[in-house]
UniProtKB/TrEMBL annotation:
Membrane association type: Single-pass membrane protein
Identification of the protein by name: Lectin-like protein BA14k
Residues passing through the membrane, by range: 69-87
Similarity-based family: Belongs to the BA14k family.
Organism: Metarhizobium album
InterPro entries assigned: BA14K
Signal peptide start and end residues: 1-23
Length: 128
């Protein structure tokens, strides 16, 4: 069934690629000589849209933004310090190895296995 479907899809794609392709021309609109453009007089307005209108004194709640050059440096520094502390505090799995070594005399740390009573190697399943 899969071979039949593959062959059918290949035939359909192959036959449709052989058919000629025609693009229809776009319809040309007639351009009106009369325009809806109106000339208006420009008036310069001072101030900003919904914002500070240009008063000389600082308004209440004003916060200056010119001292922000050190923010990225502080953020990256804090991230490096926190990331380094997290990386160095990880447990290396010593409790698992210690438990298995205390439980089985034939425990191998390299392979994480021990030799059972049946003579085969088994993986150590500790509670850690």
């Amino acid at each position: 069934m899969k071979i039949f479907t593959t062959c059918a899809m290949s035939a359909i794609i192959g036959l449709t690629s052989l058919l000629p392709v025609e693009a229809s021309p776009t319809a040309v609109r007639s351009i009106n000589s009369a325009s809806d453009v109106q000339n208006v007089q420009y008036r310069e307005r001072r101030g900003h849209w919904h914002g500070h209108r240009g008063y000389r004194e600082r308004r209440r709640g004003y916060r200056r933004h010119s001292d922000g050059y050190w923010y990225p440096l502080a953020a990256f520094g804090a991230g490096a310090i926190i990331g380094g502390a997290i990386a160095n505090s990880r447990d290396n799995g010593g409790s698992h190895e210690e438990w298995c070594a205390n439980r089985y005399r034939s425990y191998s740390v390299r392979t994480d296995t021990y030799v059972g009573n049946d003579g085969r190697r088994h993986r150590c399943n500790s509670p850690y």
